[in-house]
Design a protein that fits this description.
Layout (H helix, E strand, L loop, with lengths): L1 H19 L15 H14 L6 E5 H7 L4 H7 L10 E2 L11 E2 L2 E2 L11 H4 L3 H9 L2 E3 L7 E3 L12 H4 E9 L5 E10 L4 H19 L1 H32 L4
Antiparallel strand pairs: 1-2, 3-4, 5-6, 7-8
Helix pairs in contact: 2-8, 6-8, 8-9
Length: about 250
């Protein structure tokens, strides 16, 4: 009885995987949540370009300030655009229902923009997915917001950082193996060079990786001290063992 059930489960898993497809090829973001400067830049970009639509309902301004080594005045003056209190969670200014609003007979976003507290954990290779997603926008007049994305096709999100990246169009490329792949050609420069914009995308991915699991930042900070403690304890234990057994030898 067990074997047929196991076979059925394996078949179902296989069919789901086949339906999902291989997915987009993700770039290596190279994030490092121990890089406080990157976290600070990522927070600045997030609140200036993303927070008007996307909340971070599991993160508090006070906790973010402590972890990112920011003062209360810095957070409330430069990162808080909703009038929330320092100890409150991060919400958005978008009115309830605005995401589903219709303009000129067409849907705008189609649904409310999601909370991004756990986006880095919800996606496979979350930081790499976010990084690649931010690099993969291109103009698409058929979409209500005028933009599309190769990582998340037909998403309702516009390219909010286009002024920094510039405008790129889809082009067909051939790799070393002779396979045709989709690439991009920058036709209008932004305020940032391609390398600088990649750093912007990396900083945002780093910030959202931290938001998804703030405790990971503390674990990395405390990890060195734990290792030093274990090393010291090992030395003390060795000296105690030597003292207890010296008469036996």
């Amino acid at each position: 009885m067990t074997k047929p059930i196991l076979t059925l489960l394996l078949a179902l898993v296989g069919s789901v995987a086949a339906a999902a497809g291989p997915g987009p090829k993700l770039l290596n973001a190279g994030t490092n949540i121990s890089d406080t400067a990157s976290l600070q830049r990522g927070a600045q970009l997030y609140f200036n370009y993303c927070a008007s639509c996307h909340s971070l309902q599991y993160m508090r301004y006070s906790r973010m300030a402590e972890d990112l080594e920011l003062t209360e005045d810095q957070v409330m003056k430069y990162l808080n655009f909703t009038g929330a209190k320092f100890g409150e969670t991060i919400t958005t200014n978008m009115p309830v229902g605005a995401g589903e609003a219709t303009f000129g007979g067409e849907d705008w976003f189609g649904k409310a923009p999601p909370d991004l507290s756990l986006v880095a954990r919800a996606r496979n290779d979350g930081p790499n997915w976010i990084y690649t997603y931010l690099l993969s926008f291109y103009p698409d007049p058929s979409r209500p917001v005028g933009w599309n994305n190769t990582v998340f096709p037909n998403a309702s999100m516009p390219h909010v950082m286009w002024d920094r990246q510039g405008v790129q169009v889809l082009v067909q490329q051939t790799d070393d193996a002779g396979q045709e792949t989709t690439g991009f050609d920058l036709i209008r420069e932004g305020s940032r060079s391609p390398e600088q914009y990649r750093q912007d995308a990396r900083d945002v991915a780093t910030f959202l990786e931290y938001v998804g699991e703030p405790a990971a930042l503390q674990r990395e900070r405390y990890g060195l001290w734990v290792l030093l403690y274990l090393l010291l304890f090992t030395g003390v234990a060795y000296l105690l063992k030597h003292e207890y057994w010296k008469d036996v030898h």
